[in-house]
Amino acid sequence: MTMTDAPTATSVIGQRLLRKEDPVLLTGEAVFANDMKVPGALHMAVLRSPYASATIVSIDTSAAAAMPGVRAVYTGADLAEQWAAPMPCAWAVTEDMLNPPHHPIAIDAVHYVGDGVAVVLADSDAIAHDAIEAIDVEYDSREPIIDLDDALSDRVLVHPDLGTNSSYTWNLLIEETDGAVQKAFDEAAYTVSERYVQQRLIPMAMEPRAVVSIPQPFGGDLTLYTSTQIPHVLKVMIAVTLGVPEHQLRVIAPAVGGGFGSKLDVYAEELLCVALSRKHGVPVRWNETRSENTVATIQGRGQIQHMELAADADGKLTAMRVRLTADMGAYMQLITPGIPLLGAFLYAGVYDLPKAYDFSCTGVFTNLTPTDAYRGAGRPEATYAIERAMDALAAVVGLDPLEFRRRNFIRKEQFPYEACTGLTYDSGDHDAAATIAADMIDYAGVRARQAEQNVDGATKRLGLGVSTYFEMCGLAPSRVLASLNYSAGGWEAATVRILPTSKVQVVTGTSPHGQGHETSWSMIVADKLGIDPADVDVLHSDTTIAPLGMDTYGSRSLPVGGVAVGMACDKVIDKAKQIAAHQMEANVDDLEFTGGVFRVAGSPDKEMPLAAIAFEAFTAHNLPDGLEPNLEAQVTYDPPNFSWPFGTHMCLVEVDIETGAIEVLQYVAVDDCGNQVNPMIVEGQVHGGVVQGLAQALFEGADHDADGNLRTSTLADYLVPAASDVPSITTGRSVTPSPTNPLGVKGVGEAGTIGAAPAVMNAIVDALSGLGVHDVSMPASPNTVWNAIHAAQSTTSPNGGPQ
Amino acid sequence: MIPAAFDYVRAESAEEAISLIGQHGDEAKFIAGGHSLLPMMKLRLAQPSVLIDIGRLSDLSYIRDGGDHIAIGAMTRHMDVETSDLLEQHVPLLAHAAGHVGDPQVRHRGTIGGSIAHADPASDLPATTLALGATYIAQGPNGTREIAASDFYQTFFESALNADEVLTEIRVPKMNGAGWSFQKFNRRAQDWAIVGVAAWRNGDQAGVGLVNMGATPVLATSVAAAIAGGASVAEAAEQAAADADPQADLNASVEYRQHLARVLTRRALETASA
Ligand SMILES: Cc1cc2nc3c(=O)[nH]c(=O)nc-3n(C[C@H](O)[C@H](O)[C@H](O)COP(=O)(O)OP(=O)(O)OC[C@H]3O[C@@H](n4cnc5c(N)ncnc54)[C@H](O)[C@@H]3O)c2cc1C
């Protein structure tokens, strides 16, 4: 193992080990689904609807079917019999939630641009793509509904049979006494009422999706390779939707080039490939093109948020009202309806809010690509709303935004803190994180520079933005998920197996796709067993090799799956200890295990290394009575609480008020994810996360025209920032170990994204506040910023000061 | 993102390219660097049935001193334009603008001839060569002709070049020490300009070319006229959108484009006048 730093601790934990998984990725040797050579496979292409809302009048497939190399062409009607159940939605958030049947391929009507209407199987991808162009579909198109407020009005219905576009309304009203919220607003010294729009985002994983379904020649078994985050969940869902016996299915996620939530789903093309490969008895594969990915893979966010805050004369929060309208898109995908509710518990952020919280969310159908989880899923939205609104309220109260936050922080001594929502925040120290961030960016110094620079007539204005966050992640515990009507659990499984030659195999139910679990899990095992991380192999993402698992999303892998690995190590050590005690003729309780060696307390000459015990366990020649051979232990861990990382981000921008151009001068991220297994990996997650949050603030937005056509369907139009477009990010940390799990760890996969967008937007608004600008919508393109300045100037006094 | 099927032939000389396009007619297209054509083919916005590859015509890749002008072969890559000492010395505005095209990958493949023949009003080099008063040389079945940059651009992706002509050379007058500036305004470093301004000034003479301000690259003659008439830079820059007819797109409204043209022109002329 190579190290990039001198070790900071004697333990492996906390070292900056380079990632085991990188050499194959960097040399191009990693095998992604579309790299697989599969002789005899048929290539599938999907014809997609150009209309956002239409009835299918007729489909003529004859010309396509007659093309050389085309093996079959199917319409939705042809395949209707294939589906044992509609596509799954695992989160019916209310008893009466409306969820129209959704089939992998439209049967008689299409509901968004990109909805599949026919599929071709051909000898090559190119032939399949040529053939779909030869399919002639007659549509009877209808007016689509694109705008969320318009959809709420039910003026036009996405699914006429439902009678409404509103799928559900989910409420969470927490009041000490009836009417507490209204009373607090009535008595408040200060209030704000803000409206924010979370634009739709395209997750844009570097690898689009790819699927290869391979039926075995005899016996009915089938192996599915797919670019997914959730091989385990997918296996169950395929069994249910296709009626395939689950024990005959093997799902493998090979190298997966990013997901960000977009591959936390059960997709039409996966079901189509499985169904058609079974029907034809040959492998069927599909490879998503980049532009196809922008409409056929889920999009993220898509919410209108109304935030109302009340504060007393000291500037202490007294009540909060949240109203959300959430864009479901045309159908419910796997957890579409639940995404906004993942944020429902976090709108109070890191603040001490009394029992006066009124939250309500309405999920609405539109004629657009379905939405679903996207990095942070519900929590970036919540953090954005509260952090923007806190700035607005600070301005009303007349306090510096950081000072205003400090007055409202949940204090260190309040932890564990029972939030008004009933959840328990296990640990935190917001003042400390904020102070570290303020020192790193030189908060007072920046404020002074700002006062000097942002004078009347100045073209370039400085803005400093603060955002603090609490994240509810680690998606677990199962019982809490059940109370939210989520239909799966939140446990994770791990097996630790010491081989006869003392190398170690770890089997994990997490399904890494860029997060570095192979490295981190090896470090946890190496630390526990006193061995070299290079001697650990981590097996994952194959439902036959790792049959138990709940996969990777929601920053859950380390605080649930990694903890399970640590616990399995403990179990193995316990068993090895019995063998060691037996062989050294000592009492088990007198044995110590350090640095990979068992020693008998008080008898320095008596010791046995784990390696020797591994071999003894394998030969089984001399084991204690009743003890089974081999050193292997399995753990399924269902944590008692979520994981609660937190932090403070600060951002310094300079806005050119003539052009609206924004330059991010400095970005500081202080994240507290408890104990850090590998700080380099933590920083990598924070960097990527911050860039994605900053991208929502400044660059990205899925833009649809009034007909529902995506106008940002290529990477020339959908502005994913590149390295040259983002600032150098300075990371800092505080370490508040989680008391919930034995490793003291918390998730960090989404933290950066959660902190970044509000920090950037608060900075922009701060820069422009002298011009009377109160809000800028995302993404803050130069044109948008320029418009905001103009709108404000036309209502402010000529000297540029707010009225 | 998979192009329709096409045939491919490689031309060994400009003459051969012309005769090949004569044989294949309307359905054929030249391909140089491919960095404008291939993306359109992948999106199936262009579906030529034959590609005639002129990318290896190395005798069209050169940068030479032509006395009062610099002559640039059409197949010269953006990277070679960017790093040419000769251009740096005599036409620094063009070398600098070439360094703003796309990203390094694009600059290593894309050609100046392809960029001009493609006649994309959002591209950097058409407006820059227009501002500099360049002349383009076209070779067809009936010989060679010169086309002034100001006569070349007709509308979106359409130029005075006939389908059977190859653009062979770009002649750019030497700048003779004029001050200059290239202002490219975009959201990401690799992107096309939302608005771009290529400007030079020598005393009361000035040239201003606008990128992405209409159906063609725009020569802002009103600005040059104002400078010639003794207007201040700020006054002249107010005329920047006068000759343009910009469109709205995802990045900019019409008003914002006009505003940017004025601001960027002022900034460019301030630099060019310093
Ligand atoms: C990601 C990306 C970013 C880019 N960013 C920018 C940018 O910021 N600014 C910018 O200006 N450009 C940009 N470009 C375009 C780039 O500069 C292209 O290389 C250039 O526009 C076309 O040159 P080419 O040699 O690639 O032409 P090709 O794509 O090969 O051809 C373009 C067209 O011109 C015709 N043609 C080519 N050469 C000749 C010739 N000698 N005679 C007659 N006809 C000819 C072809 O038939 C075709 O119709 C970008 C391209 C990409 C892919």
End-to-end gap of chain B: 48 Å
Q: How many helix segments of chain A? A: 21
Tell me roughly what share of residues is in helical segments of chain B.
Answer: 25-40%
CA-based shape of chain A: globular
The CATH fourth-level homologous superfamily of the largest domain in chain A: Aldehyde oxidase/xanthine dehydrogenase, molybdopterin binding domain
> Which strand order do you get reading across the main beta sheet of chain B?
4-5-10-6-7
Mean pLDDT reading of chain A: 95
Terminal residue distance of chain A: 63 Å
Number of helices of chain B: 12
| Helix/strand structural class of chain A | alpha+beta
**In terms of quaternary structure, what is this?**
heterodimer
The largest β sheet of chain A comes out as: 7 strands, mixed
Tally of discrete structural domains of chain A: 3
User: Which CATH class of the largest domain in chain A applies here?
Assistant: Alpha Beta
**Unreliable residue runs of chain A:** 1-9, 797-803
Q: Structural class from helices and strands of chain B? A: alpha+beta
The CATH C-level class name of the largest domain in chain B: Alpha Beta
- Bulk shape of chain B: globular
Briefly note the CATH topology name of the largest domain in chain B: Uridine Diphospho-n-acetylenolpyruvylglucosamine Reductase, domain 3
Give me the secondary-structure topology:
The complex is a heterodimer of chains A (about 800) and B (about 270).
Chain A lengths: L21 H5 L15 E7 L5 E7 L1 H4 L4 E6 H4 L29 E2 L5 E7 L2 H9 L2 E6 L6 H5 L13 E10 L4 H8 L2 E12 L8 E6 L6 E5 L4 H12 L6 E4 L15 H13 L3 E4 L2 H7 L3 E12 L5 E13 L9 H4 L13 E10 L13 H19 L3 H8 L8 E2 L5 E2 L4 H12 L1 H11 L6 E11 L7 H6 L8 E7 L5 E5 L8 H13 L6 E4 L17 H27 L7 E4 L2 E4 L2 E7 H10 L11 E7 L8 E11 L5 E11 L6 H20 L30 E5 L17 H18 L13 H12 L10
Chain B lengths: L6 E4 L3 H11 L3 E4 L5 H6 L7 E4 L9 E3 L3 E5 L4 H5 L2 H6 L1 H7 L5 H6 L2 H7 L5 H8 L3 E6 L2 E6 H4 E3 L2 E2 L6 E8 L5 E7 L9 E8 L2 E7 L6 E2 L1 H8 L4 H5 L16 H20 L1
Parallel strand pairs in B: 1-3, 2-3
Antiparallel strand pairs in B: 4-5, 5-10, 6-7, 6-10, 8-9, 11-12, 12-13, 13-14
Helix pairs in contact in B: 5-8
Bound molecules: flavin-adenine dinucleotide (FAD).
The site of flavin-adenine dinucleotide has 30 residues of chain B, from strand 2, helix 2, helix 7, helix 8 and strand 10.
